[in-house]
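Model it.
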Amino acid sequence: MESLPVEDAGAWLIALAEFPLTDFFRIGSRKYLRLSFPMIFDRLRRQIAFEAARLLHSQRETEYHRARWRAARAITRSYISNDSIPTDYEIRQALQQLTEGESAFSTVREMPEDEDRLGYYRALLEPLARVTQDPGSHPEGDVLYHSLQVFELAREARPWDEEFLLAALLHDVGKGIDPRDHINAGLAVLKGNVPERTLWLIENHGTAQKIMTGTIGIRARRRISRHEDSEELEILADCDRRGRVCGRRVGTVDEALDFIRALSESNEFGDEPETF
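Modeled.
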């Protein structure tokens, strides 16, 4: 399934009339219709919708009702009420969200080898503005706003540490590709494009959150505590936890990347980056 370009949309407008059209978005030079993603279903309903979308996207299933049933059984063996069963429309929207993430990723992968690495990061970050989150755990809203909050907090804590700041800014880019396994999805697109230390911080920020809440075993605690970057990981997890405030003022993606660029240059020449 591909997102629907505006220039090809005429024949579909009647079929789409029942859906709440919000606005347009661009990937590269093409303009696409974007449909609003319903917020009425709970976490289990969202999980089933995304799993069904994954089954359809990978062509392991071709029919919505079979994908929905298989997804529900994969997620839980307990009784599922009708209120937790997503509609075809909700699955279609989850499928579109996965497709948008894949399209953005394909655009990034097609960049010339000499393309500025910051352009690579921008292409991964900007689609996050369209990725909604569970309002219970993320009342602040979309993933990009959260990421920029985490970056600002991390910059207050470690303004000289480029690798740490990259981890703060990019820790959730995988949510624009695979919301159910966002850490591994993020690692897949970042490997080879960020330092290994940044990858380690991103890979383990979820574990650090569990350490903070006391919901992980002693072995994992020991493994993390023995690592040379355990302190930075703890700070990142704290920034992640605190970066969920509605209405907090943050900079733009370009401003964050400009700071990263200035920090990289200052580290190279021994200067100190300007703040903004």
